[in-house]
Design a protein that fits this description.
This is NADH dehydrogenase-like complex O. The structure is a single chain. Helix content is 24%, strand content 19%. With 151 residues, the chain is α+β, with helices and mostly antiparallel strands. It has a domain of 69 residues: OB fold (Dihydrolipoamide Acetyltransferase, E2P). A 5-stranded antiparallel sheet has the order 4-3-2-1-5. The termini are far apart. 7% of the residues are buried.
Length: 151
């Protein structure tokens, strides 16, 4: 810790000096208003009415249109899935052709979303203990009937 000598400059002297001064007074404000003639007021009002855009109704964002509905039964098209970016990006071994249950068993659409890369569906396979998966809707095949019993 540095010690200040008695003769060194100290900031306390500045504050003592500033405290002895009289506080500054705020300047007096004078308000001057311009007076317009009645003709000028009418012209200004007319131009303001012409410039106003018509009031627009509150525009609601459009609901997205999905190719499927929640609760529909689907299965995955094997050829489309094996050639998709979703499958190729994982880096499976060459002999691995995916899990058979996504091609053979029926999955239920839990949710639909439109992402930047397209429309995706959250698919859950009933009776198979696995987590739901987001898959593009273009590789899903709609199924007409429910082939399994719900648990």
């Amino acid at each position: 810790m540095a010690l200040l000598s008695h003769g060194s400059f100290s900031g306390a002297a500045i504050f003592r000096h500033a405290a002895t001064r009289a506080p500054l007074r705020s300047p007096i404000r004078v308000v001057i208003r311009a007076v317009q003639s009645a003709e000028n007021e009418k012209k200004v009002a007319d131009t303001k009415e012409e410039q106003k855009p018509p009031p627009a109704a509150a525009v609601k964002p459009k609901k997205p249109v999905y190719s499927m509905k929640k609760g529909q039964i689907v299965r995955v098209d094997k050829e489309k899935y094996l050639n998709s970016v979703n499958y190729l990006s994982v880096g499976h071994p060459p002999f691995y052709k995916g899990l058979d249950y996504i091609y053979e068993d029926r999955g239920e659409v839990l949710d639909l979303r439109i992402f930047e890369t397209g429309e995706y569906a959250l698919i859950a396979w009933v009776g198979i203990p696995t987590a739901p998966a987001w898959l593009p809707t273009e590789m899903l095949i709609l199924s007409d009937k429910l082939d399994y019993e719900r648990i």
